[in-house]
Design goal:
The protein is built from two helices and four strands. By secondary structure, the chain is of the alpha+beta class. It has one domain (about 1-105). The chain has a four-stranded antiparallel sheet with strand order 1-2-3-4. Strand 3 and strand 4 form a beta hairpin. The longest helix is centred in the first third of the chain and has 51 residues, at about 1-50. The chain is rod-shaped.
């Protein structure tokens, strides 16, 4: 009986470690997908700026149709002719990029 109890405790520990790894892996995968969406969008955004002398009027539909049909789920907010804020949400995590020179972060624009 004690041996069975020891086996059950060991199995419970292994299952809890496995579940923790699984949820951590899903979170890392969501982060990687969101950052990839932003890295894919940035060249299209810069091409739009070059063609239109600024970011005014930029939409996801325009970027996909003219510059890069592979852009994932992003939200674009252009804040000025020479500035924008773009975000990508995958799962329950959102990543942001403010303007052309900033890094991709989890801090909102």
């Amino acid at each position: 009986m004690i041996e069975l109890l020891v086996v059950m405790i060991i199995m419970a520990i292994l299952v809890s470690v496995g579940l923790a790894f699984h949820f951590g892996a899903r979170e890392r995968a969501s982060d990687a997908t969101a950052r990839s969406n932003l890295r894919t969008a940035v060249p299209a955004i810069e091409a739009y700026r070059g063609d239109n002398q600024g970011y005014n009027g930029m939409t996801l539909a325009a970027l996909r149709s003219t510059y890069s049909p592979g852009i994932g789920n992003i939200e674009i907010n252009w804040t000025a002719v020479d500035d924008y804020c773009v975000s990508s949400t995958v799962g329950n995590r959102t990543w942001w990029k403010q303007g052309p020179a900033s890094e991709i972060t989890m801090t909102a624009c």
